Amino acid sequence: MALLISDECINCDVCEPECPNGAISQGEEIYIISADKCTECVGHHDTPQCIAVCPVDCISKDPENIEDKDSLYRKFVLLTA
């Protein structure tokens, strides 16, 4: 499952540099997470780093992009190949 940034985002820019896959970028109004690149940090860290650093807790699992840990790991392998 990819992660999703809600409209509570304050554009503080702390999440973007923490993403090891480069999945976070500035959208039109708030930061966005690319589901194609988001592995919830599987393969890199034990927990999603963007969630760990977000000061307003506006990042959660995206119900539109459900993936299990094995799928996230396979995506990590493809992204780092």
Question: Overview of this structure, please?
Answer:
It comes from Methylomonas paludis. Keywords: 4Fe-4S, Electron transport, Iron, Iron-sulfur, Metal-binding, Transport. Pfam families: Fer4. The relative contact order is 0.29. This protein has a single domain, classed as Alpha-Beta Plaits. The strands form two sheets. A two-stranded antiparallel sheet has the order 1-4. The chain has 81 residues and is an alpha+beta fold. Helix content is 21%, strand content 15%. The mean pLDDT is 95.
Q: Helix/strand/pairing class, anyone?
A: alpha+beta
Q: Name the CATH architecture.
A: 2-Layer Sandwich
Strand content: 5-15%
What is the molecular shape? globular
How many structural domains are formed by the residues? 1
The CATH class assignment is Alpha Beta
Distance between the termini: 20 Å
Cofactor: [4Fe-4S] cluster
Keywords: 4Fe-4S, Electron transport, Iron, Iron-sulfur, Metal-binding, Transport
Domain 4Fe-4S ferredoxin-type: 1-29, 31-64
Protein name: YfhL family 4Fe-4S dicluster ferredoxin
Explain briefly what this protein structure is.
The chain is of the alpha+beta class. It is built from 2 helices and 4 strands. 21% of the residues lie in helices and 15% in strands.
Task: List the main descriptive attributes of the protein structure presented here.
81 residues, Alpha-Beta Plaits, two-stranded antiparallel sheet, 21% helix, globular
